[in-house]
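Working notes for the structural subgroup meeting. M.R. asked for a predicted model of this chain before we commit to crystallization trials. I am recording the input and output together here so anyone reviewing the notebook later can reproduce the run.

Input as submitted:
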Amino acid sequence: MTFDEEYYNIGYLDRLSYQDSVIHRLDPRAKVIVTLLFVITVVSYPKYEVMSLLPFFIFPVLLITLSDTPLLLIMKKVIFVSPFALFIGIFNPLFDAGTVALWHGIHISAGWISLLSIMMKFTLTISAALLLIATTSFPGICNALQMLGVPAPFTSQLLFLYRYIFVLMEEAMRMARARDLRTVGAHGTGIKVFVRLIGLLFIRTVERAERIYQSMLSRGFYGKILSIKQYRFRLSDAAFVFLTLIFLIAFRRYNVTEMLGRFVQGLIT
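Returned structure, recorded in token form:
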């Protein structure tokens, strides 16, 4: 995959937010609140809980279906960052040698259970965050946080961090193309050249960021994000938050997987 393709893939998730669907039309504040509630509920489970987390996959599946977000795209991005979660729990099977009952008398190593729990929580929370960006856009999330009472300096810095990623990528693309035009074969691809390019990239991005900031000041920027789009928290947004909260409480309070297993077992017997 080329550098240009990687640059395109970074912003593709944000471009999906400009689609028109039931989820896209919801107020950004409602989607931010629901995502935070979902993440808090998922991470509140003990480290040996696995089966109880399975019903929570209904949430990202429903969002993907209703928002027409490509499932393969979300899966690729989750898999791409999964080594970070795997690194956190990779040594659990070595240090946690006990056993835990997994399902109807089936016992397995506690270390493997905790590792599986970490990976499931990671998959659920990261997929929820990616779907939030894909259905809201990163600027929309920052506006929602600001409307929810988050201090303006924090939301502004968060938005600038996201936008300057693309500034950095654009500078890197220009430097990479200039280097390719001035080199032949493997000449100019050593570690010394790479270190020099990194230093030059840092200088150029700082200078460009300063020019952008001065341009913003000349246009009246005073530290707060302003949005042309007017948001209204409607009855459908409140219903979305309320219904999601009810389902999260039900899933957290009751072991839906066990209840479903007993129901199926009763039908069979």
